[in-house]
């Protein structure tokens, strides 16, 4: 098998990472999946001056097929490629602002709509060793977000291609810079992070995903909320929105009439359809991942006229926040 094209692509993006200041010296590593193999930067390579002989090629079990000693982070790369079949690229950067920000703060203030849609809440994994020795927490975090921060170490992003993975790193670094500047200039009010206690979590109602009880609870929450009713009437939120569990074939359709849910049924031919696996839909409903972020990161697929849907964005944000009060299993 010829891996020349993979190597050329990695070299291009490695140089760009260095040019953007997201990696320096011998930090960072990149991998690209090629059928049943993974092309990864070799150990102790300088990404800013990467050449065609600075690679290792591994099979998905980690056996060396050709090239030099692989990056010390190869176990993490292989675990990601094996867990996420649609992912072809993994980039581990040492983004300075992102790394520094999460050294001092727990939560990033995101200021642009675009960054919110693509980044959502970025998870942070505690890191106590120079390389990732326990990949399980990284994998769990990547199940909810395509980008994760390794505390005091760097950032890992994954994507279907290089542009997608690189864009996550670039957006996060931009927002970390902006947040640093805003905090330094005292342009934003800093609010303490609200962490829901285990006691509060245990008091939330809990239902099987998309069960009759779950749907009734969601409907009642929306219809009882005065803000949603007012915004829905003002924006004429009248449409059909379906949620389809691809793992089980279960589907529920919500019929909105000026912000109020008038009825529900199992109609899959709705104007807007959210398609996702049971695993991801549970994370969406439990607010472990923002639904808009899940869509932009490809974890769920949405069908419909998004220009029309964006008009109702404030109502949908409020709706999903309310639905997060009901736990699903």
Description:
This protein is of the alpha+beta class and 329 residues long. The chain folds into two domains: 4-184, L-fuculose-1-phosphate Aldolase (3-Layer(aba) Sandwich); 198-328, 2-Layer Sandwich (Nonspecific Lipid-transfer Protein, Chain A), CATH 3.30.1050.10. 40% of the residues lie in helices and 21% in strands. The protein has helices at residues 4-19, 74-83, 96-104, 113-119, 136-142, 162-184, 198-203, 212-224, 226-234, 278-285, 291-296, 306-311, 313-323; strands at residues 29-34, 37-41, 55-59, 64-67, 89-93, 124-125, 147-150, 154-159, 206-207, 239-245, 251-257, 260-265, 272-276, 301-303, 327-328. An eight-stranded mixed beta sheet has the order 4-3-2-1-5-8-7-6, sandwiched between helices. The radius of gyration is 22 Å and the shape is elongated. The relative contact order is 0.10. The model is unreliable at 187-196 (pLDDT under 50).
